[in-house]
Specification:
By secondary structure, the protein is mainly α. The chain is built from 15 helices and no strands. The chain starts with a helix and ends in a 22-residue tail after the last helix.
Length: about 300
């Protein structure tokens, strides 16, 4: 009964309340790994990946072959920024999977380690199973922008925004993609018409940090590619259109630079002629859309997307 009530609270968006019930259920039956699994997911939903890791470790002690616990452990490590540790189990779990969320997590880990070509191949594989997944298109767009593929990045972010199942986080990603491809004016105009001036300024700062960072993890953190909010619902969380600090700096997350060394990404759109070509396409593809949200209104929480 406690577990069922916890599940209802979790589905209703109250992971903190659910956690209390899962704890009570675990105390009543400490040999059942399922309540530890549920505790781990609740911790992930609450942006507490280190606590989630411990819960999933406990579940694996009771059930070493449990796939759900293995997945939760990998996502916890990824949310802590420990991409090098998270990647092997993610690859093993995703090897024969068609789950776009799991593949998205694998792509995140690869991007964090500077392996953009492999990451982009994984995103595209996932899109073959979920072609209208806005998150996948958005993640692919960010990865392409970071690796200097400006025109492809613009096409992908256009697909993310045009998805029949829209995701408000992609308005923030559009600002980042435009800025990462050198289109700061278009980025600012679009951002101010969709997510507001303050949030736009924050994202432009992040994009500048990404463009000047010397390592792949630093770039990923700067744009919010990694965050402790990486859950089963959003394995690869996208930047928050809020005034929050960079997502990779979430409380409790370890520095990815301390866990993985990666080659520097190549400079974004360095050739002047190429930059002009990308800028022209940006103006055609991503013109500022009519505002549907007052610039002073708070932007939606990007971690609230449904599975």
């Amino acid at each position: 009964m406690l577990t069922r009530l916890g599940d209802d609270m979790s589905r209703g968006g109250d992971p903190s309340g659910a956690l209390k019930l899962y704890r009570a259920a675990y105390q009543a039956d400490p040999d059942d790994p399922h309540n530890l699994q549920r505790m781990g997911q609740a911790f992930l939903d609450m942006n507490a990946p280190m606590s989630a890791e411990q819960a999933f470790r406990g579940a694996l002690m009771l059930a070493p072959d449990d796939v759900t616990a293995k997945r939760g452990m990998a996502l916890s490590l990824l949310a802590e920024g420990r991409a090098a540790e998270a990647l092997p189990p993610l690859q093993q779990l995703a090897a024969n999977s068609t789950d776009p969320r799991l593949l998205r997590a694998e792509g995140t880990a690869l991007d964090m380690l500077g392996r953009q070509t492999e990451a982009q191949a994984i995103y595209r594989k996932a899109l073959s199973y979920a072609p209208i997944d806005a998150d996948l298109h958005g993640n692919l767009a960010l990865s392409l922008a970071l690796s200097g593929e400006g025109m492809d990045a613009l096409r992908e972010i256009e697909a993310a925004i045009a998805s029949p199942n829209p995701d408000p986080r992609q308005d923030a990603n559009a600002v980042l993609v435009l800025a990462l491809t050198g289109n700061d004016v278009a980025a600012q105009a679009r951002g101010e018409s969709t997510i507001g001036a303050v949030a736009t300024h924050d994202l432009l700062v992040r994009a500048h940090q990404a463009r000047t960072a010397s390592t792949a993890p630093a770039r990923a953190i700067a744009i919010g590619l990694m965050t402790a909010a990486t859950t089963s619902a959003t394995p690869l969380a996208t930047p928050a259109p809020t005034d929050a600090p960079p997502a990779g700096a979430a409380s409790g997350a370890r520095s990815p630079a301390a866990n993985a060394s990666a080659p520097a990404r190549r400079t974004v759109v360095t050739h002047p002629a190429r930059r002009t070509e990308v800028a022209q396409q940006a103006n055609q593809v991503l013109r500022p859309s009519p505002s549907t949200t007052s610039p002073t209104d708070p932007s939606p929480d990007p971690r609230s997307a449904p599975p």
